[in-house]
Specification:
- The structure holds two protein chains of two kinds.
- By secondary structure, chain A is an alpha+beta fold.
- In chain A, 60% of the residues lie in helices and 14% in strands.
- Chain A has 24 helices and 21 strands.
- In chain B, 33% of the residues lie in helices and 27% in strands.
- By secondary structure, chain B is α+β, with helices and mostly antiparallel strands.
- The longest helix of chain B is centred in the middle third of the chain and has 21 residues.
- The relative contact order of chain B is 0.12.
- Chain B folds into two domains: 162 residues, Beta-Lactamase, CATH 3.30.450; 229 residues, P-loop containing nucleotide triphosphate hydrolases (Rossmann fold, 3-Layer(aba) Sandwich), CATH 3.40.50.
- Chain B has a six-stranded antiparallel beta sheet with strand order 3-2-1-6-5-4, sandwiched between helices.
- Classes of the chains: A alpha+beta, B alpha+beta.
- The interface between A and B is large, with 34 and 44 residues.
Amino acid sequence: MKRTQALDARRNIQKEIVSFFSIMMIGMLASMAFLSVIYSAATLKKDALSFFNSNELWDLEISSTLLLDEEDLEAIRKLPRVREAEPVYQVEAGLRIGSERVNVSVISLPEKISRPVLLEGRFPETAEECAMEKQLMDEQGFSLGQQIQVEAGTISGIDPLISKNYRITGAFQTPDHITNMIPITPYIFVCEDCFDREGLDGAFMKVRVLLEAPSDRYSDAYLETVQAEEEALKVLQETRSRAREDKLHDKYEEKLNEGQAQLDEGKEQLQIAQDKLDTGYQEIETASEQLNQMAAQLFGAPAMFNEARGKITAGVAQLEKARGLLEAIRPIIAKGENWILDHFDESQWPEDLDLTYAEFEQALRDGKVTMAWLYEVTGYNAGERLLKEAMERLESARRDWYFLGEEYLDGVTQLEDGIKQLDAGKQELDKNQEKLNEAERELQEKKKELTQIGKCRWIVLDNRSNPGYVYAEGNFNKLGSLSMAFSSIFLVVGALVIYATIGRMVEQQRKLVGATKAMGLYNREVFAKYLIFGCSSTLIGVGLGILISWLPLQRYMLGTYEKLFNYGVGTKSFLPRETGIVVAGAFGISVGAVFLGCSQLLRLPAIQLMQGLQPSSGRKKARRSGGKTLYSRLILLNMRTDWRRVMVTTTSIAGGCLLLVIGFTLRYGISGVTPKQFGQVMTYDAEIFYNAAENKEAVSEIEAVLKEDGLSYVNVRKETGVFDAEDTLGSLTMIIADRGMLKDYYKLCSIDDGGILDIPESGALVPRRFWEVYSINPGENVTVYDAEMNPRLLEVAGVFENYYGQLFFMTPQAYEEAFGSVPEANCLFVRTNGLELEQLQQEVAGIDGFVKLADAAAERKILDQFSVSLNFVVWIMLFLAGMMACFIVANFTLIYIQRKTRELTIMRINGFTTGECIRYIAIDLIVTTILGIALGLVLGGILGAQILRVTETPQIQMIREPVIQSFLFSALITSGFSVLTNGFALRKVAKLKLSDIS
Amino acid sequence: MKDRNSYTEILMEVFQELLGEEDLEAALADSLSVLARALKGEVGIIWLLDQKAGKLVPLFQTGPVDLSNVSMEMGTNAESYVTQSGESVLVRDQTPDPRYTGTFLSEIGLTVKDMICVPLNRIDEIIGCLQIVNKKDASSFTEEEHRICRNFAALAALTIGEKGLEVHAGRKKEVLIRLLGVTKEFPGGEGVIRVLKGIDLDIYKGEFLVILGESGCGKSTLVNIIGGMDSLTEGSLLIEGKDFSHPKDTQLTEYRRDYMGFVFQSYNLMPNLTALENVQFIADIARNSIPPAEAIARVGLADRADYYPAALSGGQQQRVAIARSFVKQPHVIFADEPTAALDYQTSIEVLSVFEEIMQNHDTTVVMITHNPEIAKMANRVIRLQNGRIGDIKINLHPLHATELVW
């Protein structure tokens, strides 16, 4: 290019400085829209990575259903990509703060991996010391030196924490938690000595792993490395799990066998004892029978004694009677035998004499009859002896009876003692039996558990399970998406504007172009002049855009993100590659736009160019005027014949407007989430958590308070869990409530027709975002994990509209079906009806089993901060879009007016008033602006909805319904800019120099 | 001797003009210009006596004083004295002369410092006088110059006598536009540039006024001011008696809308409108327009009425522009170099259209041109020089367009 040509190009810029400035501004705005966001995203990412890498954030975290041991650790360490592996002791615990309980993770202080950054004090050195996460300290008002007490849960039946009381020695920040925007369980670091390593049998809860992986933890290469290692761990898991299973199985089986042996021995002993007891009882029974017999004898003896005494008395009486008879005979006997024989009447012989009459008669005859004989033969003597003997025996029997009575009483006493002893023995036996039964049951359970826990499963988590890591990535990506979405539109609009501006300029200079061509300049030389114009303005604009993006704008953008992350966002990024692409792209676009703008004209021969602009057609076809004046028709005619300008103007204005619509759609879509979620979807105000295990009456006592305050409530179970979808572990919150109970507390709206849904009898209602992200349709199952991280299948029964959180709604029956256990309610959703939460807190704080009262809208803060950050970016985009719209409208108005200056001057010279001339221009501008706005609104609505979806996370759904204000404000701003810039530009019409025409 | 030679040269030049030109009026006008220029006179006038009316008529003039619509009763002033007495008058540094009472020029506002006034003395009668006023270099006229003027006057009178020239004081013309002391300044690189330096001019109804001048002399500026397209800096502009010196925009718009038409060198047609529509576009807003089709027909483009400008030749486009200018039946049409971009034949066609309009509509046409041949069509020709009226020439017998040759 010759020096004069360069001079001409420079002076052309000076002459067309407004257009030059417009293109420059649009180049600047477009590059700002892209670069400011990607620079900020790069800084966010760079600082996050720096924080992660400097503190060696774990790449993989391995836990196991059966804990992990040294052998596992060694095996992991031997994996090829593993740079470091460190065991971690960790237990979830509660920290009692006033009447509330805050969940914390008590975790062994790491040495190499995920090293905490000490912010205050020092790390714990003894089993009585701990360090607390700074966020927890600040939120709960703890201070160094303060004593805390934790309530730890158990792991595999073992209370892993030896020490429960700690003194806070330091405050730290961990790379595991880089944002305060996501609810996390804060860490309390303690020494390993605080854990019952003996009780844990040398096992630990987790192993954290550092890999030989790329330092960009968000890069594909990093993720590929991690995934490869996860695959390796899967393989390792198979062997290690079996080994662990076997080891534990053997260990527990041995223990079970020992227990079984002890149980059997106990059973045996118990049986012996039982036998003895039975014998004792039998003996007691025998003794009792004997005693009874004795008693019978004892109690029968007096009667016998009486009877014997009676008989003896009767014998004595008979003996006396016999003695009387015998004595009565004595005289007879004295009279002789004959006499007796003669005088004695046989019939009168006493029959009860042992001596019959005949014998007597014989004895008489034999002369043996004497009194002595008679005493003898009549049995008197015998009777007397017998009586004596009987009396002796009676006496003896009486003595025996007394002895027996004493024995009986002794026996009874002994029996009673024996029975008591036997009963005691029986009770002991029963107890032992019961113990034995219990032991047997336990043994059985242990056996059952052994079969159940026999499956060892490793849970391998990578950084994608770290909410902070994902949240940060989401922010980079969102910024990137926003930047791409906005800048692509900026790009199109910018290209159009450059094209239109250069096209207009060349058109305006067509005679000059013709003349220069006529003078022998090549097309390329003519083209170079406009290329210099287009490229220099674009590149200067881009250069300014780069500077502004790099320095102040990036700073402002990062300012809002500093609040989201606690790793210290600050060092500004400059991306040479992306910046180079932008510069090259801007250059390419400007070259393209200049080429398109010039090419048609440059192809024309010089003579045609010098003839000035003429419509291409020759003769007009007859057409009806439709009753319009020529003035009106001319306006339409102008638009029709100059359709390319109208199209470019309309498209560019549409571009500006659609950027605004997108911006406002994002603005309302984002900021509308909080009021929608916490105003319309969640209609309860507070959640009161309680622990029924601590106090069975807790719920009824809390309910009594609520009733007294006249508050409505519903009793549910709220439980966090983990799901596995598309190989991604995510957290979810399960709300378990009876059907029909939640309608006044949570609006479950159908995604199909907006109708109110009830909790299904089986399966769970899942939020729309879950359904969309993981593509799990109603009727399909999602894998959820129970407390022991055992996978369970839960059917998706329906989908509802939800704007924040992965909330799964299900009935207790559905829960039981999925998890195999009956859910216990632990939370009351309360509608406070305006009652201050503090007052309610005071009322329920004293109830045993009360855990905490939470503001239902507590997560509003997170959403609000999320909205604020994103909104700030959106506002910047809106500002840039507004500026863009302003420059577009101004540029095109000026272009149009410049283009029409000659016509307008002619009109003015010929007597058209200023008003008529302004109308002549304005109607065209108004029509193109209206068309542009209409097009912008339509396209903006469509694109805005698409881009809004990009900003959504699995947790957050934006307000997708079109917000009328978005369209209204966009139309108003575009129209406003149009009115302002047109008003300003149209002053040129009023100040037209008519004399310039000649 | 040097002066002597130069005076001889002047006289020779004057003779050549006077005698060589067949057209007497042109000869007189041109020779007067040569004389005035040679003598560095500010104003030069040939007054002829209308015997019937007894009035002196400034038939030819050069210089910035517009005497187009002037006739003078014979009286006691210098011009009358010279005409009546046949004596010459030489005034130096405003020297009082008891023979007469001042000059007519003083009455119309010109300060006369130096003056030569000699009689046009035919043998038998005095037919008028030649007047050269003020020297541009502020010196005084010499006797030699006085003598040259007398010789010129004698030769002019002789020529008029031979060729014959009728003088009619006629009716006084109706002034359509009057400019008094109009100046125009533009901001320039080193202060203010005064483009018009005090223009006094009347434009009459029905006349064809041609404005000639070098580039940058202020022709377009003058027309822009008269046409209501630009404002004057000082002075006053009267249009049909109304003061438009500092008009409101609406006044000017109304004025242009109904009373003025414009024709430009570059046609300036609306490219999106056909020939007829271009005319109709203006007719639509005018109060007293003729049918656009008639206007198009009058410029001979009835068969091209539906053609867009792109499909018309330059001459045709200019004719459309003319039709557009007169469709509203304006009182005055301003034409700025309407034929500059056209070839001879086309120019003649275009000029013929102007001629037709003037003849049939009594429309005043003010035309700027560089072409002195076109000036022969004009009733009056004004030559601007350096922001001032250099001279004003009256064509007593304007030519028809078809008679022009260049």
